[in-house]
Amino acid sequence: MATATATLVRGASPRLVTGHLLFLAVASLLLLLFFSPRAAAQPWQVCGNTGNYTAKSPYQSNLESLAKALPANASRSGNLFATGSVGAVPDVVYALALCRGDTNATACGSCVATGFQDAQQLCAYDRDAAVFYDACYLRFSNQNFIASTTNNGDPIILMNTQNVSSPVRAFDAAVAVLLNATGDHAAANASRFGTGEEGFDARSDPTIYGLTQCTPDMSSADCRSCLGSIISAMPQYLSGRQGGRIVGMRCNFRYEVYSFFSGAPSLRLPALAPPPAPSPAPFNVTPTATPPGTTGNKTGRVLAIALPIVAAILATIVLCSCLWRRKRKTPGKSTLPDTTNPEDIQSIDSLIIDISTLRAATENFDEANKLGEGGFGSVYKGILPDDQEIAVKRLSQTSRQGMEELKNELVLVAKLQHKNLVRLVGVCLEDHEKLLVYEYMPNKSLDTILFSMVWEHWTTGTLMEIMDSSLSSLAPRDQMLKCIHIGLLCVQDNPGDRPMMSTVNVMLSSSTVTLQAPSRPAFCIPKSGFNSEMNSEVYPGASQSASRSPMSLNDVSITELEPR
Fold first, then answer.
1. pTM beyond 0.85
2. I need a surface site. Which of 112, 223, 296, 410 has the fewest CB within 10 A?
3. Region annotation Disordered: residue ranges (predicted)?
């Protein structure tokens, strides 16, 4: 065409030349519009290949029902998100709509309604279609894509046609930092939406703005994984561009060198530190001439001498360390130093009990009064002259708990006062004895009572009976029940069933997460089955062999403390 036009222009009259110039201008404009980037106009559509439907068919009727319901559902929801399905196979229609997190409810509903109209025009009679706008996007399909938490199909990639004037690698690195930080914020936020700004180059691109978003029904981990997959593709498709976005059905991001979102950004990041400037080369330095081969030979001799010496020193250090650790772990040897000074803890005068009183209280530590035995010594039941029942912890001479650890325990326990904690009554450090005196608790650990009680009320549907009536005005009933539900999930018998803390955070902060039913707690003691005495290390009449082996219904929850 160019050759023919040039020929016509050369042999034509001035009036004809003017006409052809006008034709060239119009043709160029049409070509420019045809080949312009996809970001030039909205909406951007993706038409599927899962088949077609016909006019007035059941599929079209189901689609029209969703087109009426979904815009209102999205605008009324707190997170501007909605999914739905209508009909049965083969005419079932699934749909998903998400509005940008900084959009108001009215604009959201209008955008989704327009999307249904445009999708049916741009992808006429297609059973699967998606349309994307700045403010929202939606998709409908005869395939159940809403059950997946990944971007179904290829996401669309839109780019700013302008290139940055700054160094491309530095700009791309700054964009990656901004998008990853904003992605972390979005994944941790219940709305799964985040915005941010980052300082860059005051001369060319002073600030970079970013936005990340996932559908709110995704977990925090799924959202971050989805964003990570599209952010990692940014250098491949958008390197050096002043702006761009990658939009999938489940997550998307956008960045520009101008502010494009409403409201203040969620994050503000400082500019990345520039790389250090290379050191200037020294002036007027003439290198000393070295005979060929001299430097290499000298370096080789030094390494040949130094390396074996360094290796020998390291081997000696490792060997000594291993021997020292093995000696420390040798059983049967006291780790208490000979110079231990009991006077270091005599400042707790109010807790001092003389040895004669404790001998009388325990009948000289009679085996009949022995409650049990642990890693640090035996425990005896006793009665003080004022008829107070006590439990005396007698540390053995071979105990790994030294005077410093005992001092720390005394200082800590003496400060703790609570109705649900065993109270420290006193301490004795006479005649080479180290004795801790606690109040005697005849029942088992408090956790078995609490967990059993809550579990029984859970199974009978009477959880409100364990609520403190004074709390009824402080929080809604469903919120209190939700907290108990999450607590039971966290103490399930199988550790693999217990939720991670990130999941617990999502459960507490989201009102749309469905909680699964908990299984029996690890410490729940049924009324039949295990003997209740078998779950208490310290109980009257326990045999010595049984008391030396701490038992737990959950073997991962046994904690044996060992001093450092």
1. no
2. 296
3. 536-564
Query: What is the Cα–Cα distance from 156 to 135, expressed in whole angstroms?
Result: 15
- Amino acid identity of 532? S
C-alpha to C-alpha distance for 421 and 180, rounded to whole angstroms: 46
List of domains in the chain? 40-147 (3.30.430.20), 157-269 (3.30.430.20), 349-439 (3.30.200.20), 446-509 (no CATH)
Residues facing residue 253 across a β-bridge: 212, 246
Q: What is the residue whose two structure tokens read 């039949």?
A: 528
According to DSSP, the β-strands at 377-383 and 389-395 are antiparallel
pLDDT tens for 107-157 read: 999 999 999 999 999 999 999 999 999 999 999 999 999 988 888 777 899
The residues with which 45 forms a beta bridge, in sequence order, are: 131
Q: Give, in order, the Cα–Cα distances in Å from 30 to each of 2, 26, 27, 65, 161.
A: 15, 6, 5, 39, 18
Query: Residue 525 and residue 455: Cα distance in Å, rounded?
Result: 10
* Angle CA 449–462–480, to nearest 5: 85
Token duo for residue 488: 């039971």
Q: Please state, in angstroms and rounded to a whole number, the distance separating the CA atoms of residues 414 and 426.
A: 9
37 has pLDDT over 60: no
Query: Encoding tokens for residue 439?
Result: 């109040």
Question: What is the Rg, in whole angstroms, of the alpha carbon atoms belonging to the chain?
Answer: 38
Q: How many CA atoms lie within 13 A of 268 on its CB side?
A: 3
By the 8 A CB rule, do 251 and 182 touch? no
DSSP 261-288: SSSS-SEEEPPPPPPPPPPPPPSS--PP
Q: Is 393 annotated to bind ligand?
A: yes
| H runs (alpha helix) in 35-163 | 58-76, 105-122
Is the distance from CB of 440 to CB of 381 less than 8 angstroms?
yes
SS (H, E, C) 489-502: HHCECCHHHCCCHH
Distance, in Å, from the CA atom of 436 to the CA atom of 348, rounded to the nearest integer, reads 13
What is the SS3 assignment for 455?
helix
Is the Cα torsion angle 521, 523, 527, 530 positive or negative in sign? positive
Q: How far apart are CA 97 and CA 222, in angstroms?
A: 18
Q: Indicate whether 514 pLDDT > 80.
A: no
d(CA 43, CA 149): 24
Which carries the bigger pLDDT value, residue 291 or residue 468? 468
